[in-house]
Amino acid sequence: MLTITYHSKGGVRLTGGQRGITAYAKAPLEKGDMLLQFIPEETPTTGIYCWPGEYDVGGVMLRGIGHNEGQQVTFLAVVDGIRCALLALPLPEWSDADLQLLGDVDVLLLPDTDPKVIQTLLDKMDPRALVLLPSEKGKVSDEVLRVCGAQDKAPVSEYKVKGLPQEGREVVVMG
Question: Which residues share a beta bridge with 131?
Fold first, then answer.
């Protein structure tokens, strides 16, 4: 079972494989976690994934997709058979070729950003679950909540993916 946990110090942690994955944070949230960075480093430290390519680490399949001539990387992580997209910020333009590389998305993790861009991505990717992450201000904006149909959703710190809806979309607000 995939569990997504939001940490107050920033970032999210995905667990369910043999190793945890930390994203949207400056350092791993737990010892032994893989750290996804969305801007490539020339020589990344062990355990940091920041380049396009495919990786199989601890039972988790990662696919890094480069954008803007390699200046940004978006990740698809397959944890316990659930395909999770973790998008680089600022959100790049998504070509049809990029969408094909990404493939089907079960869970889209998306930090609070431009509502129009979010709507376009939701239309193109059509995930079964959307996990909205707070901005640096510590909450998801009202505009983004409205675009995603999540005005009445209370923020949670943990989301366990037990099953994905066959129709429609489950929206989870982290905070």
Answer: 109, 172
